[in-house]
Design a protein that fits this description.
4-stranded antiparallel sheet, 51% helix, 12 helices, alpha+beta
């Protein structure tokens, strides 16, 4: 019993000290703190960076129509209609095939407009369909930007549509926008191609099937234009470290792409396989054996930061169209200084008031509960620090609210202990029974709240997901402080000889 209490005390002390160590860098700047992570202040408290992005719709439609034109060419060829393709213009070798070709093109996509000029067909989208595509591109771009900058929704990043083709991004607590620009400036269009090993000279390139692409060092590679597997088939990407300690990006395909990847690697053993990001060759490994599990690694001269950034880009998916930053500025706090001070003061007073209330009501037991509540706040702040979450004024109020909710658990426990003592049980037994009976009620109420938070995280996005994360953190920390820390403090302060709780 005594040894168990020592181990429990040491474990809880270590957890609380570690949480305090993680939290302190938010209040003090000192070289003793290894961790550089901090809680960011929101737009309402500190301001941040504001970026206005323009969606390059011209590039999007040019690329989309060019791909469609190539698909049309292949379809026409199956019907013995020969043609040439340049961008979105299809030139028929035989002008008499125009009517037959028009029927086939309309069957491929009925939302196309066909304009004839001599033996050429210029394809474009009908206005109503084009407008629907613009809306889809804008919505997908907003979701993609949100995922890149704030996957969990804890950073309070604001991403809003401005007009038809602009996006306003506001990132709280950020002054240096270099990393943000890096994340937003890349389309992150990943593709896997076979390299053309039959090319001996640049002059031998068949430009219809092969293209010369360069890597970051300027080396050129002849790559088949055909995309064997697209980046949209990735289900996960993460940073790992190789045998020499160099960071690599590990990726995994979905089930359909895994089968395709297995077939490609089986049929092309000994051949180079290029991994291309935004038309830049990342690496060209040689296929040594068939890969059946749908997993692989992207290696290169990455720093850990570059590898982490690449993993974020790949997980968030490719942008449907390039984004260009057309305006950048720093913005001040949305709340006035007096409002901020008033909010902070209100949160502080509420926490102190809750602590005083429980001390007045339960005496020295209340003092122990207040110490546990303090550990609860430290635990919450430490987890928010590790997540590099953004704290807004409502967030400060939320922490104060969480403290109030944590008191509920202590009240339930203390009242149960009182009832057990009144029934004539010894203090030690009353404490054990009180905690045992109260824990069932505490778990029931908190688990239902956690289920609701889980549903919000799965279904919601942005700030909704952020709220669900912080709510879950608050609940778990309050349960730990009430059930574990409070009980430990009572056990340490219990005086069995006098049958009282100090």
């Amino acid at each position: 019993m005594y040894n168990r209490l020592i181990v429990k005390s040491f474990s809880v002390l270590c957890i609380c000290l570690f949480a305090l160590y993680i939290t302190l860098p938010n209040f003090f700047d000192n070289k003793l703190f290894i961790s550089k992570k901090r809680i960011n202040l929101g737009l309402d408290l500190k301001g941040g960076a504001s970026l206005l992005l323009n969606i390059d719709l011209d590039f999007y439609f040019k690329e989309k129509l060019s791909m469609l034109a190539n698909e049309i060419k292949e379809t026409l060829l199956t019907k013995n209609i020969e043609s040439n393709v340049q961008n979105s213009v299809i030139t028929l070798n035989n002008i008499d095939d125009y009517k037959k070709a028009s029927v086939l093109i309309n069957a491929i996509n009925p939302n196309l407009e066909l304009n004839r000029k001599d033996s050429s067909i210029l394809i474009s989208y009908k206005p109503h369909y084009k407008n629907s595509l613009i809306s889809e591109v804008a919505a997908e771009s907003i979701n993609n930007v949100q995922r890149r900058l704030d996957k969990l929704g804890t950073k309070e990043v604001s991403v809003q549509k401005q007009g038809q083709n602009k996006i306003l991004v506001q990132v709280p607590g950020v002054e240096d926008t270099k990393q943000i620009k890096s994340l937003l400036g890349k389309t992150a269009k990943l593709a896997f191609h076979l390299a053309n090993t039959n090319i001996a000279k640049v002059q031998d390139i068949d430009h219809e099937t092969t293209v010369m692409l360069k890597d970051s060092l300027g080396n050129s590679y002849p790559i088949f234009r055909k995309t064997e597997i697209g980046g949209d088939s990735l289900v996960n990407a993460s940073v790992r470290f190789g045998n020499l300690g160099k960071p690599t990006v590990h990726f995994k395909f979905d089930s359909i792409a895994s089968k395709r990847f297995a077939r490609i690697t089986k049929e092309n053993v000994g051949k180079p396989f290029a991994i291309v990001l935004d038309n830049t060759v990342l690496t060209v490994p040689t296929i040594r054996e068939s890969i059946l599990n749908g997993e692989g690694e992207i290696s290169g001269n990455f720093t850990e930061k570059q590898a982490s950034e690449l993993a974020i880009l790949l997980k968030s998916g490719a942008l449907p169209a390039p984004l260009k930053i057309i305006e950048e500025k720093n913005i001040g706090p949305s709340l006035g200084e007096e409002s901020i001070k008033a909010g902070e003061m209100a949160a502080t007073i509420s926490i102190i008031a809750v602590a005083l209330f429980i001390i007045i009501t339960y005496g020295k037991l209340g003092v122990l509960a207040s110490v546990a509540l303090f550990s609860n706040v430290i635990l919450i702040l430490s987890i928010l620090t590790l997540l590099e979450a953004t704290l807004t004024l409502p967030g400060i109020a939320g922490i104060a609210l969480t403290v109030g909710m944590a008191v509920d658990a202590n009240v339930l426990i203390f009242e149960r202990i009182r009832e057990e003592i009144k029934s004539g049980k010894r203090v030690e037994r009353a404490i054990e029974e009180g905690f045992k009976n109260a824990i069932k009620t505490i778990l029931d109420s908190n688990i239902t709240t956690l289920i609701a938070a889980g549903i919000m995280f799965i279904i919601g996005s942005g700030a909704i997901r952020g709220f669900s994360v912080t709510l879950s953190i608050g609940i778990l920390c309050s349960m730990f402080s009430a059930i574990t820390v409070t009980k430990l403090l009572i056990e340490l302060c219990m005086n069995p000889k006098e049958l009282v709780l100090c």
